[in-house]
Amino acid sequence: MLKTETFTLNMGPQHPSTHGVLQVVLELDGETVVQAIPHMGYLHRGIEKLAESRTYAQFIPYTDRLDYVSSMGNNLGYCQTVEKMVGIKVPERAEYLRIIMTELNRIASHLIFMGSLAIDLGASTGMMFGFRSRERILDLFDMACGARQTYTYIRFGGVSADIPSEFIPALQRFLTDFPAMLDEYHRLLTGNEILYHRLKNTGVISGQRALEIGLTGPALRASGVDYDIRKVEPYGIYDRFDFSVPLGQVGDCWDRYIVRMEEMKQSASIVTQALEQMPEGTVMATVPKVLKPPAGEVYHSIENPRGELGYYIVSDGGVNPYRLHVRRPSFINLQVLNEACQGLLIGDVVAVLATLDSLMGEVDC
Amino acid sequence: MSNQDINSSLAELQARYLEDVKIIGEEAQSALLALPHRLLDILRFLKTNESYQFNMLRNLTAVDYLEYIEIVYHLYSLPLRQAITVKTRCGMEDSQVPSATVIWPSANFQEREIYDLLGVRFTGHPDLRRILLRDEFDGHPLRKTYNIGNAGERR
Amino acid sequence: MQEITGLFKIAEILRGILGHFLPDPQLVDICMSLINIGAIFTIISLTAVVLVYTERKVSAFMQRRSGPNRVGPGGTLQSVADMIKLMAKEDIMPAGADKWMWILAPILLFIPAAAVFVVFPFDNKAIFADLNIGIFYFIAMSSQSVLPFLMAGWASNNKYSLVGGMRTVAQMLSYEVPMVLSILGIVMLAGSMRMSTIVAAQQHTWFIVLQPIAFVVYVITATAEINRAPFDLVEGESEIVAGPFTEYTGMRWALFFLAEYANLLAVSVIATTLFLGGWNGPWLPGWVWFFLKVGGMIFLFMWFRWTFPRLRIDQLMSFGWKVLLPLALLNIIVTGIGMYIYEFFS
Lengths: 365, 155, 346
Prior knowledge:
The structure holds three protein chains of three kinds. Chain A is α+β, with helices and mostly antiparallel strands. In chain A, 48% of the residues lie in helices and 13% in strands. Chain A has a single domain, classed as Cytochrome-c3 Hydrogenase, chain B (Orthogonal Bundle), CATH 1.10.645.10. In chain A, a hairpin with a 2-residue loop joins strand 2 and strand 3 (32-39). Chain A is globular and about 80 Å long. Chain B is an alpha/beta fold. Chain B has helices spanning 6-9, 11-16, 36-48, 107-118, and strands spanning 21-24, 31-34, 56-64, 68-77, 82-91, 96-98, 121-123. Chain C has helices at 6-21, 25-62, 78-88, 99-115, 134-142, 146-155, 159-190, 195-200, 207-210, 212-225, 237-240, 250-275, 286-307, 313-345. Chain C is mainly α. The longest helix of chain C is centred in the first third of the chain and has 38 residues, at 25-62. Chain C has 14 helices and no strands. In chain C, 46% of the residues are buried. Chain C starts with 5 loop residues before the first helix and ends with a helix. The A-B interface holds A 40-41, 44, 46, 48-49, 53, 211-214, 225, 227, 232-233, 296-299, 301, 308, 310, 312, 314, 322-323, 325, 327, 331-332, 334-335, 364-365 and B 25, 28-29, 55-59, 61, 63-64, 72, 74, 78, 81, 83, 85, 104-110, 113, 117, 130-134, 141-142, 148, 152-153. Chain B: Residues 36-148 form the NADH:ubiquinone oxidoreductase 30kDa subunit domain. Chain B: Its EC number is 7.1.1.-. Chain B: Belongs to the complex I 30 kDa subunit family. Chain B: This is NADH-quinone oxidoreductase.
């Protein structure tokens, strides 16, 4: 008697393209995916529990370690949440510096996305190019705060230090070079026929479904839903900048790729505008050394490169948060993996994973 | 609509579920507190009603208040650009809340996370397993009563 | 006929020297064969070492890195260091592996890769065995490498390996067909399958001019035959880790590697012989021309590898059967008609 049956393939936690320690249990019918169940937790450090025994300021470095390719955004989200609780007014210059840093970090994060997508699809040159350009941004961060990946640059009431004098010329040089870099990526990757056919119409998620399943960030916008927190609930001083929100049409891998590529352009434009408008002045408000927010709770979210990064903090009036919850976009975005992968091939799972751009540091928290 | 004017605009909801829902907190922290057995009705009402249209479940988490566990739903309405917080409470021992996955599938992982870390059972959840910790893990670490023991901070 | 030059002259001198010491001419022949075999193996292992270094330098050039630059001048000894490392590595065999099949697979893969070198015309008359079915022999031999891949995939008792093995069979079988058909056009023009005749036929016009479509089809299918990007689905590291090689370590893995580079050299040699005029070329000695052309082909294959993303398995199959095969068939028809017309008018 001949019969066929499916088999299980453990993709991860040690696998070249699961971006960290994600384990996807694939149920395969030949090469066709019947089910793709993500298993996470290999990087779980209990950050939410740790927060309960740290003071508010002590927790800032932990936020760096959530989404470690866009730490600036994590810092910003947390600091703004606490500032909202305590009612701290941030100096103008610091607001602009925050915008510049988070938007640069968004570009850096999307460059990593582009690079890892390229190498996951077998084009390793794309990755090298992405990382090369990201290096320029990391150098800028290094100038501003002395760190390349875990910055802890944004603090309650401002930023840790004003930028050095060589920062702005270097940033301007980067902004001048950036369009040419983007153009190069478009020629290398976007114009590539193979890449187009690999990504087009794979892993389609409709806008309605994307909303229901809780996608946020570029993955949601690729499905055509206009939800960018910088626009719908402008935090900080985002209402002062003129930028557009790139949207996709069908919500396939290709759209998710294009949306991120366009976002880089928009971010560069925001940085340019911020640089023009940035006033002189202090970069730090007077904030008490030990913060004791009044009892109560706050939910505040920002638009991180991977989606809506929300912090929900409950305070009991003490020096430690009573409860701190992080709404991690990578974690919630991963929910869509199973249905996006069904019926695709093994090679497509890699593409879907890469375009969802989940980061395990954030998923596992 | 933000949480501030929650009192004025939720008249319809209150009229419908009078005894099962009340508004707690003030200003930015105001929230709807629903009884667990009416929770799904209220959430569905908030999602489908023309004047609310809360079509996104932005965040779902829970807090251990020692006497009870509070489940917090942060909803957002994309068409009307308004946010609301809905809460419900359950006991410490037999912690059970109906699952919101039937209304927003996005609750799936977040409810599993709450189950994993706080030990709230979501009835009607399609796949209620631990998500971050290993399956044989004992206890729910985010509960205030959880004994960290030797694994905790060493001073 | 060209006068005796280059590599063949060296062989003649060697034969002369041997003739002094060995009384029996038959013994001299045997000695010469052994020397030739030795030379071929030297070429294979040397090219592997050189190609690994070249590949890394070329990829570094494409990616604006500097590549290996620590071991030896300009990093030239890097491959040697790698080889020593590979030899010193622990030989791990998975517990569930099918022992003999698992051990045999890398060796069996290497044999056809080395055997095809027999018919390569490195220079005028510098060809180990100028078979009258030379190109046919090459095709027959190179298609043998399908089995060892499947063996390795099956014997490793690893699902990634198995998927990789399956992919190899699908890919190699379906790309063999258009490859053979593209070569057929050349055979029609040259009127022979003998390598030296094919090269001699290109003394005035390279076949790439007469058979551009066949050349394109050949280059694409050859890339697929040797499993290099964009057709590296067999080992597609971001999908199935390393395919059939996943469980191999140390020298066993190095044999796969060696075979891969020997194959790269082989298809480049065939491309040179069939399309680029082989050893033909002005001024320089034949074998210099030969290796220059081969080097150019190798660079082309490396260029592909470091710029293109990988195809998906279904795209690969449909491209092979729906695009390349009809194209190759069309090429044969056009060639046939062209030859008929040419003969009719002359």
